[in-house]
Amino acid sequence: GKIFGISFHALPQSLVPEYGYIPSFLVDTCEYLEEYVHTEGLFRKSGSLVRLKALKSKLDQGENCLSAALPCDVAGLLKQFFRELPEPILPPHLQEGLFKAQQLGDEKKTATVLLSCLMADRTIAALRYFFNFLRTVSLRSNENRMDSSNLAVIFAPNLLHSNENEKMSASTEKK
How many other β-carbons are positioned within 10 Å of the β-carbon of residue 39? Predict the structure, then answer.
C-alpha cells in the first residue's frame, strides 16, 4: 500500500485505455483534479502541511481518502509524489539531452522522441498520461491561471529532482 518514497516501478498500477499501466495514485489524483481544473491557482496555492501529512499517511496505509480532500491538498500531494520518488521520473542520464533537445528548432520533437526511446515503456506511458493531464489544465488557463509556462515552473523541480535534495541550479531551472 505504500505510495510515497518507493520506486516508480514498484507502485500499484491501473490499466488506462490508450496509455497502458499507470501508477494508480497518479490516475486517482489526475482524475480527481480534472473535476477542479477550473480552480484558480491549482498547483500554485499550497495546501495545509498538516492536512497533507495526514492525507499522505492515510494513503500510505491504503486508505481511499482523496474524494474528501481539498483540491489544493491533492495538487500538493501530486507534486510531493514526484518529488519523493527515489529516482526522478525523467532519468538523470537523459536530462541534459532533453534540455538540449528543447533548444533545437525544427528537430526538437524528433530529438525528444528519440531520447524517449531510451526510457522504460512504463515511464513513457506515465509521462504521456501526466502530460496530457497537464495539457488539460493549461487549456483552462483563462480560469485557473495555470498556463504551460506556469506548470513547467511548478513541475520541473519535482520531475527533475536530484537525489541529494539540493536546490535546482539557476541554469537548470531556466532550461
Answer: 20
pLDDT in tens, 106-144: 999 999 999 999 999 999 999 999 999 999 999 999 999
Mind listing the pLDDT tens digit for each residue in 52-90? 999 999 999 989 899 999 999 999 999 999 999 999 999
Say which CATH topology domain 13-160 has: Phosphatidylinositol 3-kinase; Chain A (1.10.555)
Distance CA 35, CA 110 (A): 34
The residue extents of the domains of the chain are 13-160
HEC letters along the chain: CCCCCCCHHHCCEEEECCCEEEEHHHHHHHHHHHCCCCCCCCCCCCCCHHHHHHHHHHHHCCCCCHHHCCHHHHHHHHHHHHHCCCCCCCCHHHHHHHHHHHCCCCCHHHHHHHHHCCCCHHHHHHHHHHHHHHHHHHCCHHHHCCCHHHHHHHHHHHHCCCCCCCCCCHHHHHC
Cell numbers linked to 49: 502541511
